[in-house]
Design brief:
Length: 363
């Protein structure tokens, strides 16, 4: 499993489609007969989507699905700022789609980059650790914030400017402070770790964490930043990290040890939606010209859409339909990432006809 994951991650970081290898080996004639389908997805989907892709291509041999993986914000930037002709966008935070795609317009048509999305799966934020991690025999769901804040502990976090798990990790500290009524947990973890500080403001009903435009750790920092959470896996396996914020599905896929965060903190429980809403993260920079990235705490929800500029809309709809089918559900569940029982669609009236029967309107 480790070797397979490392190979998949290397391919995705190089921008090489996971499905392209077989096509290249098959010869130019056969490759020309296939429709190339560009899928940009959150890094936490690498393992299950490798199997989704294989099963999808077996069902539709005339389509060559080519997947590339990044942090969720970076996935959208490839469509809205780099103007790449992407057919399917899949993010670990469905709210990014209306925030960054509805509000941005394609220059050639002046149409929004998306006007619908389907919310199809959730997850839980958790802490992953290895066999040699410091204080592994001590850490638990009650003391985790204090343990990983210790100066001799190396903790990995995805860069919140690019990856949803990164700003969710910051939210976790605000939420655990509120849940425990202990407002001294954030400072030991984050103060003095960055060249420009990450700050927290605690209001009566809302706690706001602000991430500076330039986010870089100091040389002696105990925090390790990477562009996406899956890039932290190899550092855990090598022992270069003690802990990393990861999604539960990813931790289970790689057989790592896990600290389950309390329900008030893990951002995965529907009954705690209103509690999660008391935390937000503000990205204090102008990476996006037309929007102000401000992320409010809510239950984790993965989203999928077909962006403006997609060259193969019918094939993209087939891919999404396959993902949401019983066969797709079985693949995802086998990889510890179950789908919602009902798929909720925002902009339901704008869905391709073949997808409307698979979802219900988001209230």
């Amino acid at each position: 499993m480790k070797k397979s994951f490392a190979t998949l991650l290397l391919l995705s970081l190089l921008g090489v489609a996971l499905g392209s290898c077989n096509s290249q080996q098959a010869g130019a004639g056969e490759e020309a007969e296939k429709t190339p389908l560009s899928v940009f997805a959150a890094g936490s989907l690498i393992v299950p989507f490798a199997e989704i892709e294989k099963a999808f291509e077996a069902k539709y041999p005339n389509i060559d699905a080519r997947a590339e993986y990044h942090g969720s914000i970076q996935v959208i930037r490839h469509a809205t700022e780099l103007h790449e002709p992407i057919d399917v966008v899949v993010t670990a935070d469905a709210s990014l789609i209306p925030m960054l795609m509805y509000a941005s317009r394609a220059p050639e048509t002046n149409e929004p980059y998306a006007d619908w999305y389907i919310r199809f799966a959730s997850n839980h934020l958790a802490l992953a650790y290895g066999e040699s991690s410091k204080y592994a025999d001590e850490i638990n769901a009650e003391n985790w914030a204090g343990v990983i804040a210790r100066p001799d502990v190396k903790i990995g976090i995805a860069d919140p400017r690019f990856d949803a798990s990164g700003y969710r990790a910051l939210m976790a500290f605000a939420l655990t402070e509120m849940a425990n009524e202990d407002y001294g947990l954030f400072a030991p973890m984050f103060d003095g770790q960055f060249s420009f500080p990450v700050t927290i403001f605690r209001g009566d009903e809302l706690t706001t964490i602000t991430v500076p435009e330039v986010l870089e750790t100091k040389t002696d920092s105990h925090i390790v930043l990477r562009g996406s959470s899956v890039q932290l896996i190899a550092l855990l396996e090598s022992g270069d990290l003690d802990y990393a914020f990861e999604y539960e599905s990813v931790i289970r896929q790689h057989n790592l040890n896990m600290v389950n965060l309390p329900v008030e903190v893990n951002l995965g429980e529907p009954d705690f939606e209103s509690f999660y809403h008391q935390a937000q993260v503000n990205l204090d920079f102008q990476r996006f010209a037309s929007v102000k990235p401000l992320f409010r705490g809510e239950r984790i929800g993965y989203g999928v859409t077909i962006p403006a500029g997609a060259r193969h809309i019918e094939e993209a709809a087939l891919f999404i339909a396959f993902l949401l089918s019983d066969e797709g559900r079985a693949v995802m569940e086998a990889n510890h990432h179950p789908l919602f029982e009902a798929f909720l669609a925002d902009g339901y009236e704008n869905l391709p006809d073949g997808l409307q029967t698979l979802a219900v309107p988001l209230e």
